[in-house]
Specification:
heterodimer; A: about 240 residues; mainly alpha; 12 helices; globular; B: about 280 residues; Leucine-rich Repeat Variant; 3 domains; 17 helices; about 0% strand; disordered N terminus
Chain lengths: ~240, ~280
């Protein structure tokens, strides 16, 4: 006689779907989001976490975003397919999830969010995400155009009206810098000088009312000094 | 907690982008009050340096009227917004009128005026603030019968005393009993002020305990208060607080910008890397 197969993921999805209160939804989402998926990623689990993004329950949405980030690239298509222009909240959480996953398929949404989302916390997440797209696995000829788009979006974000977004732009620029290094000595510059001068402006801007932004930009420049020197010498 | 949870704030935030000239024009007219309301907010938000901003905002502040509980429209909303904006302009010329507003019968206006006088670090305001709070938690801090508010806007007034920074014994003795007030938000404001004025770690302890309070609103207030003081030993507890990252980031910004004089053992760099991980 066979023992009954227990499907813990299935049960956990069911718990999220059955949750009757904000508290139980948060708890059930947190359990599902931290589940070990073993050999294969469970598409139903992804769909369920994506659905939670639209429930207007911030606690549960935070847990679902963490879960989706942990699932990584598998979660990107379901997130993009679920985007609903009429549900602003869900869209904002989707931006956060895509920023954390760092998959290039999220690039369009991240650009759009940094440029025009009304929520500073969404623009903040998008700026961070634009600095940390995972480009390492892509063919060479694709990498640079994508990095250039990220740079352009982040340079425009330097003028954001909210200090926390400018702070995130600085962090994004620092993270993006290695992608902009010339491939070999003597190769044409790829925007590193532009990135550096943007950081220089942010580190000294007298109109900046948040000195923490000045300070963070100065720290980024200090960390990037070796890279910048290399482009200066050859480009 | 620096007026972060301001019921009036959302209305103006939804407005369309306008220019400074347009904001001044909207404030000058008096037919459309919602335009005045937005214009006053706009000038404060953008810290206008236009020479007309101060006189126009002062005129708007004077526009207040005796409260009529029967009237549908809250006339003083515009005067309150003007009072808030005057704190952000950073012009000491606003101090006399704001001082007068501290004795207005509208406690919402007294609250806005107190916060602005704190922002302007107006030492002239200390005597009036002490007078209004002199009856202590059982008087100034007693709940009103007609609303959930207290007799005086204690939170704003205590915070103003901390921000103004006159650490005289009379000020300290007046604030201390408020650290035992029934309401956690008042305790938080009192501890914040005492920590700012004295730099004594014993006032930081209750604030850090409030970071674990069951109510989110209280945890948020404690975050803002530790940030306003710049209390760097609170770095770890702030990072672990159950609240939005947006608020933790504001608090940590305070630790970087205000914190150097409190505790040199936690460097700004450690705070910056904590901020990076909250983005």
């Amino acid at each position: 006689m066979r023992s009954v197969e227990i499907d813990p993921i299935g049960e956990r999805i069911e718990a999220v779907r059955q949750a009757a209160s904000a508290q139980t939804l948060l708890a059930a989402t947190a359990v599902l989001a931290t589940s070990d998926h073993g050999n294969g990623v469970n598409n139903e689990a992804i769909a369920c976490l994506v659905e939670v993004l639209g429930f207007n329950n911030p606690g549960a949405a935070v847990a679902a975003v963490d879960g989706l980030i942990a699932l990584g690239p598998e979660a990107v298509e379901p997130i993009l397919e679920s985007l609903d222009p009429r549900n602003y909240g869900a869209r904002a959480w989707a931006v956060r999830a895509l920023a954390g996953i760092g998959d290039v398929r999220g690039l369009d949404l991240l650009e759009e969010a940094l440029a025009s989302d009304i929520g500073p916390s969404v623009r903040r997440a998008a700026a961070r995400g634009l600095g940390q797209l995972r480009l390492a696995g892509l063919p060479r000829e694709q990498r640079h155009p994508i990095a250039a788009r990220c740079l352009e979006a982040l340079l425009a974000g330097c003028g954001d009206g909210e200090w926390v977004v400018r702070y995130a732009v600085v962090v994004g620029l620092e993270a993006l810098a290695p992608e902009l290094q010339p491939e070999q000595p003597g190769a044409p510059p790829r925007g590193l000088a532009q990135l550096r001068s943007a950081l220089e402006r942010l580190s000294t801007d007298p109109a900046e009312d948040a000195s923490v932004v000045n300070l963070r930009a100065a720290l980024a420049l200090q960390r990037l000094a070796p890279l910048s020197a290399a482009e200066g010498a050859h480009g | 907690m620096a007026g972060t949870i301001d019921p009036d704030a959302g209305i103006s935030a939804a407005g369309e982008p306008i220019t400074e000239a347009e904001a001044l024009q909207r404030l000058r007219q008096s037919e459309d009050q919602s335009q005045q309301y937005y214009a006053a907010w706009w000038l404060g938000r953008n810290r206008s340096r236009h020479p007309e901003a101060l006189p126009l905002l002062l005129a708007t502040l004077r526009q207040r009227r005796p409260r009529d509980p029967g009237a549908g429209v809250e006339e003083n909303a515009i005067a309150r917004n003007a009072a808030r904006a005057l704190g952000k302009l950073g012009d000491a010329g606003a101090i006399p009128e704001l001082l007068a507003a501290l004795d207005d019968e509208d406690d919402g206006l007294r609250e806005a005026a107190a916060r602005s006088l704190g922002e302007l670090q107006a030492t002239e305001a200390v005597a009036v603030l002490l007078r209004r709070l002199a009856s202590g938690p059982a008087g100034a801090g007693a709940p009103r019968l007609d609303s959930p508010r207290l007799q005086e806007p204690c939170e704003a007034m205590l915070e103003a005393l901390g921000a103004i920074g006159i650490a005289e014994p009379g000020v300290i003795t007046l604030i201390e009993p408020f650290t035992a007030h029934d309401r956690p938000l008042i305790r938080s404001a009192a501890c914040r002020a005492l920590l700012q004025l004295s730099g004594e770690a014993r006032w930081a302890e209750p604030l850090m305990q409030l970071l674990d309070h069951p109510q989110l609103q209280v945890r948020r207030a404690a975050l803002m208060d530790l940030g306003a003081v710049g209390w760097r030993p609170a770095l770890e507890p702030i990072c672990h607080t159950l609240a939005e990252n947006s608020l933790k980031l504001i608090a940590l910004r305070g630790l970087v910008e205000q914190g150097a004089h409190h505790d040199a053992t936690i460097q700004a760099g450690a705070v910056l890397s904590a901020m990076d991980s909250l983005l």
